[in-house]
């Protein structure tokens, strides 16, 4: 499946969450990651995030799609981290 | 169609972009909006954003899906702005 993860966490945890998600997904923009994952990988990601964040203060949204083909992406302004370049 | 818009803009333009997107979409989280829009509304949103942002520095990603049914959303931690409440 294809996921887009956006997070809004307290400043002191931003770097840890960012670093953690980089292991599984492509960094797109400030607080946004996306990529193709399996069900098992997504479970692992969620378990890791559970440990890293404070669920009373932080907020993480995981948007899951069955396939990337359902997603049309448009960018206004700069592409901070074009995925094509990461995959090169 | 259903859209999720995430933005990473310079501090001086954050409030304007946020205020603008609130007119069309539901605020989800810091720098994230989502909602159902028509093609025409999306064009209007994009035109408005073109005027508000500096495309040499700012970055706005628009994820479009043909229908909300393709999107499964999971939240870890707090829901900063639960859409159900907004619609009530």
Care to describe what's here?
The structure is a homodimer of 88-residue chains. Chain A is built from three helices and five strands, in the order E-H-E-E-H-E-E-H. The first copy, chain A, is of the alpha+beta class. Chain A is 35% helix and 33% strand. In chain A, helix 1 packs antiparallel against helix 2. The model of chain A has no long low-confidence stretch (mean pLDDT 91). Chain A has a single domain (2-75), classed as Alpha-Beta Plaits, CATH 3.30.70.240. A four-stranded antiparallel beta sheet of chain A has the order 2-3-1-4, covered by helices on one side. Chain A is globular. In chain A, 26% of the residues are buried. The A-B interface holds A 4, 6-9, 28-32, 46, 49-50, 53-66, 70-80 and B 4, 6-9, 28-32, 46, 49-50, 53-66, 70-80. Strand 5 of chain A pairs antiparallel with strand 4 (59-65) of chain B, so a sheet runs across the interface. Chains A, B: It holds the Pfam family CRISPR_Cas2. Chains A, B: It comes from Syntrophothermus lipocalidus (strain DSM 12680 / TGB-C1). Chains A, B: This is CRISPR-associated endoribonuclease Cas2. Chains A, B: Belongs to the CRISPR-associated endoribonuclease Cas2 protein family. Chains A, B: Homodimer, forms a heterotetramer with a Cas1 homodimer.
